[in-house]
Design the sequence.
């Protein structure tokens, strides 16, 4: 449990305190608290329940692995569930990572299963530069949400680079490996869209909420967050169409490659057919023309060679090869 306590009167962070001291700062207007809980335990959740008096269902949601993005309103706090995309290197797939946020007049509590890079970076930055904390919990919430949303853009860039790489590869050498890569990119884009879609409505709802900690001056800040999430959504829509175009192009190139192979094999079969017929006839134990000539073998080979060359010239004249 990481705890950051800001003293508004002293304009500084409280350096020394024990966990047992935290309840005395809760709902004290002279202080602003940020408690970040990574991999919450039942003890941590009981601490929140006993001291912050959050709704038991919200506490239960924090311990749940999968929870849909939502915004629950209470008399003195809001409870938000947000998702950010998490890239799993082992499987090369995106998966939703849940961040739970409680916000009140003078506190924010973030709860998540495992390390969350954007929250950790925001926390470390505020330890170094805590000027924004003097503006209240609403501005702190904006800073946290802004970090979570900005975390999407590097992943978007990675997806775009993957699309470009597979696009280059399919024109160099169409193969089934490219098909697997395209399908993986398409799956990640669909997962990303499923993560972003419900949060568009959530942020738009948060933009127009009227609470003591969400003052009117914050409207423009949350409007900027809405613009960012809409930009992410539009980008994903473009990537979805782009990867579908790459998939169609790859299927066309692969079909052309197969057609070329079949055409070459067909030409070989047609050329070999009369040669097989001639060799089969002269392989019979019968009296045949040139059967007693010492030059029979040479003459037959020359005839077969002439037929082969003639057929290839004819195919070339017809532009079949």
Sequence:
């Amino acid at each position: 449990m990481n705890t950051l306590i800001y003293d508004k009167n002293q304009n500084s962070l409280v350096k020394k305190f024990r966990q047992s001291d935290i309840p005395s700062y809760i709902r004290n207007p002279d202080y602003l608290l940020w408690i970040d809980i990574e991999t919450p335990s039942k003890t941590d959740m009981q601490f929140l329940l006993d001291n912050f008096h959050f709704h038991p269902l919200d506490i239960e949601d924090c311990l749940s692995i999968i929870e849909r993005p939502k915004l629950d309103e209470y008399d003195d706090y809001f409870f938000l569930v947000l998702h950010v995309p998490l890239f799993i290197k082992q499987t090369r797939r995106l998966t939703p990572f849940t961040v739970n946020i409680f916000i009140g007049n003078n506190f924010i509590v973030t709860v998540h299963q495992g390390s969350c890079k954007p929250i950790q970076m925001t926390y470390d930055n505020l330890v170094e530069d805590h000027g924004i904390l003097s503006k209240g919990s609403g501005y702190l919430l904006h800073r946290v949400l802004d970090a979570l949303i900005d975390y999407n853009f590097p992943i978007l860039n990675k997806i775009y680079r993957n699309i470009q790489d597979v696009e280059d590869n399919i024109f160099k050498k169409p193969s089934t490996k490219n098909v697997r890569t395209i399908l993986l990119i398409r799956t990640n884009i669909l997962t990303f869209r499923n993560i972003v879609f419900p949060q568009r409505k959530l942020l738009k709802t948060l933009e127009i909420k009227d609470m003591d900690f969400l003052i009117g001056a914050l409207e423009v800040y949350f409007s900027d967050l809405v613009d960012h999430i809409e930009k992410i959504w539009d980008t994903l829509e473009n990537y979805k169409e782009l990867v579908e175009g790459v998939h169609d192009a790859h299927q066309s190139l692969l079909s052309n490659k197969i057609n070329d192979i079949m055409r070459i094999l067909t030409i070989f079969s047609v050329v070999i057919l009369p040669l097989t017929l001639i060799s089969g006839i002269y392989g019979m134990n019968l009296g045949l023309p040139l059967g007693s000539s010492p030059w029979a073998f040479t003459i037959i080979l020359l005839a077969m060679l002439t037929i082969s060359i003639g057929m290839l010239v004819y195919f070339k004249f017809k532009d079949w090869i």
User: Anything to note?
Assistant: The first helix runs from residue 22 to 25. DSSP finds nine helices and seven strands in the chain.
